[in-house]
Amino acid sequence: MSTMSKIIGRIFPTFTSARFAEYRIPRLWVITLVALVAKSGLLTGSLYGILGSLATAIVAPPLLCLLSIPALALRRRGQATYLLLLNGLLSFLLAGDAVYARAFQEPLGLHTLAAARTMDDMAGSITAMLNWTDLAYFADLPVALAAIIASRDAMTHSSRRLGTFAVVGTLSAAVVLTQILQIGVGSHLSDRRFLPLTLSPVGFHVYDVASAVSNRDRDLSREDLSDIRAWLGENARYQAPDHAFKTLHGNVTGKNLIVVQIESLEQSLLGQRVNGEAITPNLNRLIGESIYFPNVVQQVKDGNTSDAMLLFNTSTYPLRSGSAFLRFPENNFQTLPKLLSSDGYTPIAIQGDAEEFWNRDRTYPSLGFSDYVSENRFEDRREVGMGIIDESLYKQSIIELQRLQEPFYLHLTTMTSHTPFELPEEMKLLEMQRSDQTSNYLQSVRYADEAFGEFYADLKRRGLLENSVLVVYGDHEGIHKYADSTWLPDNNARVPFIIHTPDLKGITVENPGGQVDMLPTLAYLFGFDPEEYAWAMGRNLLGPHTGSAILSSGDVLPEADDAEHLQEGLRVANLIISGDYFSSSGG
């Protein structure tokens, strides 16, 4: 017996005994099975704070048995190679789940994996979310490789072996199918967030693939169409204004609209100081002459920044899995650009990255933008991190504005404050006593605020603000989304929403809501009749009711009105987007 065989024998003595002499490959099979079950438990610990669950313990082993059965069709070391490749592939998948879950609180979905080509410019962001503990998912692979090298015999296709695997395979399939059929029995089981706990992490991916195949090119049924119409009809009652804000209806009719979506801007930073310095001095001043909503929660999901763009411009919740920009870029969306276009506006979008990034070159026309200015049209292409720096974005925006006829709608998306929050020293404006990720995040936000302040001053100097409404909002959380820990106070998933027009007396509206409410609130101020945007899933934040205070996870804020209606809205939105509702006869 070789030295390596002796080592393997000491580690796994049971499987080197005479009783298992003819089962060298099953020995590796058991090692693989145990390792993958352990990794599944490690991932559930990362996701839910518990090392596995009873359901995971029941489902993971038989599911992995099923996945390993193809090894029977191979001979000699091909069988062992298959098991090693299976282990390696699932190890990478589970490690990817762990990294992805740090930002999105769930494993990678099939649609996100399929869109990997869109991640070319996101290497820094992904690297920032890595943790040394992720190496644990690969710790057993050298041992498995050593077991293959040490094993000289191949598993034969004896009737005893085939019969054993047939029984194991049948029982495994029965256990897995039974667990899958339980999904939908309770609301906690139908919640996508808990599927890895219900089916095991590997089972989640099998179920995700099966769901994607079954829902591909899905046509809306009569029941689906009825559900959508009923939900939108019921939602119409939330567009009525509060008596105190009735005079604001049509208050900005005919004015230009300039919208700035600021990357990773958290609500809790506004008005705050660090070491005596204001973090967002320019935004703080803007609030004094604006309608300010400090209790709007982020509602983005897998699409992240693109979801924020979707929420703002369509007032539709994001997909339950994947990004609408990637999966359905050519849908017939009902949108703010189209609504404004019907009133004579010219809508354009500008962002400092590649034109095709996240399918924007295909999605923006579907949203109704008549022009999309990407990095290839910028005069100043200086880059930091994910793309062109904010100050260059704002300079290009001024150039574009001077070419436009009024009225216009310009939507800008900033990028410099994107994770991993790494700025050159000359761009850091705060005096920080610490050197950590939170400090870097604050430096990024401070820079973003400074660049915005210069843009605002330039707009004012050129007279471009006199007949314009300026809107600022955050796309999603920053440090609280991407970091394992931070010394900043909790942000409670909030992003700022500011509507500014010159000489407007400052109004703070504490009403809780979500990003989906931004469009109907603006439509009210621009004087549109609610029937003109009856497709909006959001609520008027200037109404007597709460806004759509629900997270993309389905969690509803305690003070929100009609929680059941809000939760049903997530399902309805998925139908609207995946079924291209507004292109159907029901739209």
From TrEMBL:
It comes from the Bacteria. Substrate binds at residue 418. Keywords: Cell membrane, Manganese, Membrane, Metal-binding, Transferase, Transmembrane, Transmembrane helix. Pathway: Cell wall biogenesis; lipoteichoic acid biosynthesis. The keyword S-adenosyl-L-methionine does not apply. Mn(2+) binds at residues 263, 305, 475-476. The active site is at residue 305. It is found in: Cell membrane. The chain crosses the membrane at residues 28-48, 54-74, 81-101, 129-150, 162-185. The keyword Ribosomal protein does not apply. GO terms for molecular function: metal ion binding; transferase activity. One of its GO terms (cellular component) is plasma membrane. Residues 255-527 form the Sulfatase N-terminal domain. It is a multi-pass membrane protein. PANTHER family: LIPOTEICHOIC ACID SYNTHASE, PHOSPHOGLYCEROL TRANSFERASE I. Belongs to the LTA synthase family. This is Phosphoglycerol transferase MdoB-like AlkP superfamily enzyme.
